[in-house]
Specification:
82% of the residues lie in helices and 0% in strands. The chain contains eleven helices and no strands. The protein is globular and about 50 Å long. 46% of the residues are buried. The model has no long low-confidence stretch (mean pLDDT 85).
Length: 261
């Protein structure tokens, strides 16, 4: 086992990511992705992001097994599975620098989408009449498209959660059931990713050393997040998270582009 200062810095980022995971059922990997992959490199950072989630996913999956929207879970897995297989191939076909640019761009785009949804849109709606907007065929197609794209992104970089959430947040309205359904999605998808990464030799001593440092910090964030689920305003908290996400994603995108140039 080895130790580097970068292991501790990556572990500290897990506290933030897993706090969100404990509250919402998604977000731990995508929030930490820029730091994890930036410091460890994508070859170690992506399998690190897969393995560190599994103990907590299994714990919550067993604990809340009865409170899952199984119908929506089946639909999510069915539409994500082809993308997962494509993404698994892309991870090994894309160079690390290109992968970092891709991760940075995806994280930045996701952050901008959610900043609009949680900050800009509510400010605009205060000035207009509040009316029900019909669910159009285009919106449905967009949500299903996000499921398919989310599968590809998750298979390649393990950060498809926010894209998959675009569908789930509309399909599962109740807060705890939404979190538990999202958690069960990751139980299935991350287990497959872990198996595929192990088969391809991604579980190196370097990555496992970093993981041993990160797991205790992830546990702190996860269980605090679970405890705060019923006590905090999730929307206000996520507004702060998405602003941080925008910063780290844009920083990774710009620095990676400069490195390629």
């Amino acid at each position: 086992m080895t130790f580097e200062l970068s292991f501790l810095l990556v572990a500290l980022m897990q506290v933030v990511g897993f706090f969100v995971q404990g509250c919402t059922g998604f977000g731990c990997t995508v929030i930490a992705a820029a730091v994890t992959n930036g410091l460890l490199g994508t070859e170690a950072g992506v399998p690190y992001g897969t393995l560190i989630t599994l103990p907590f996913l299994y714990y919550l999956g067993i604990k809340e097994f009865r409170n899952v929207s199984w119908k929506d879970l089946a639909k999510i897995i069915g539409l994500c599975l082809p993308g997962i297989l494509v993404g698994n191939y892309l991870f090994y076909a894309i160079s690390p620098d290109i992968a970092k640019i891709g991760i940075g761009a995806i994280v930045t785009l996701i952050a901008l989408m959610n900043i609009y949804k949680t900050i800009v849109k509510p400010l605009v709606l205060k000035k207009v009449e509040d009316v029900d907007v019909p669910d159009t065929a285009f919106k449905k197609a967009f949500r299903y498209g996000c499921l398919i794209l989310g599968g590809i992104v998750h298979g390649a970089f393990n950060i498809g959660g926010p894209l998959i959430t675009v569908y789930t947040i509309e399909a599962v309205q109740e807060k705890e059931k939404f979190r538990n359904t999202m958690n069960m999605v990751w139980v299935i998808l991350n287990t497959w990713n872990a198996f595929n990464q192990f088969r391809n030799g991604a579980f190196t001593p370097y990555m496992l050393s970093a993981l041993l440092v990160g797991l205790p910090m992830a546990a702190i964030g996860f269980f605090i997040g679970m405890g705060f689920l019923k006590r905090i305003n999730r929307e206000q908290f996520l507004r702060i998270v998405y602003m941080v996400l925008l910063f780290v994603g844009a920083n990774m995108l710009i620095t990676s582009i400069m490195a390629v140039i």
